[in-house]
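>> received
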Amino acid sequence: MEPRLNVRAEALAKILLIQSFAGSLPGKRRMMEFVCSGLHELPGVAQARFEDHLPKTEEKKEASTSIALLTGDHHHGHIVLTLADEELFEPYRPYAQNLGFTLAVSLEERRKRKIIEDHRRNLEKRVEEKTQAWIREVRKREEAQKQAQKIQQRADKLESLGILAGGIAHDFNNLLGGIFGFIELALDASSNNPEVVTYLERSLSAYERAKEITQQLLTFSKGGTLHKKVTSIRSLLERGCFLASKNLNCACELRLPEDLWPCEVDEQQMARVIENIVLNAAQAMPQGGAVTIEAENTDGQALPHLPTKHERYVKISVTDRGAGISEEILPQIFDPFFTTKPGAHGLGLAICHSIVKRHQGVLIAASKPGVGTSMHIHLPASPEINLDIEHARF
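>> returned
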């Protein structure tokens, strides 16, 4: 009798040991291996194994029993005990079932902890993603604000230069008027002296060039009166492409959508802007190349860097594949009298900038040395979107 009591005591101690240490083992598989190893040593048990799936009816045999690891509606698997002696095992069945319940509770706690940990990680990941997105948005807005400030500072600088240049040009124009009058009088008085007439005619030619520069300065400073009307930008760009391909001996690639919005512009002055920019693009490729002229409809909200605010814009881009402009020079290209071309006056882009600004638009240059330069014109689109205009075809 005493040996049987010792065996039972040892078996119960084994179950208590399993119950005490199983929950501390990492991983479900390792935990179940430890449990099955211990249950295998119970009296009457021939084999113990763990299975994740629910036991099927046909799998149950008379010489086996199943311990379900069940908490509520969640099933964690079951332990199958193959019995060598059911009668010998029977006294330990309640303890084994109680062990199963304890293991199920431990596994359920692990499952819930994992769910909480997964939720915590997902939340941290989402918070990190949202934080990074917010940081990127803040940086993007700061960069856009800096860009807008640079554009505005450049515009203010050009406006100040324009006022100065306009005052000088006005006074110089008055002086030129007097010079022209005296040259005319000298020509009349020297009609019998061919040599003097030749010199005076050369002086008159120099006067014409000086007058042209003066008019350009006045255009830069004041721009003249704008005669704006709703105009097809497509037609102006086709004309600019024609200029590049025919008159400048340069290939031109035109990329224009069919639904390009019209703009309210002074057609003559805006044509001058486009032709001047196309001319610069062609001259940037002395060995030949292709000028790309493209345009697109853009939403004003997507252009936070622009100092002017309109609901819709038409973006015009003229791109060359020339040598490009260095970062040091790029901020100066719209300054009056700044030029890198021998014999040029350096007023072309300054006048273009002035005309575009007077149309409440923005002219921006982007360049990469060795790749080429792009001039981007942002013009406010006309509210009259459905405009029926015959496009000029060249």
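>> Confidence is low (pLDDT under 50) at residues 388-394.
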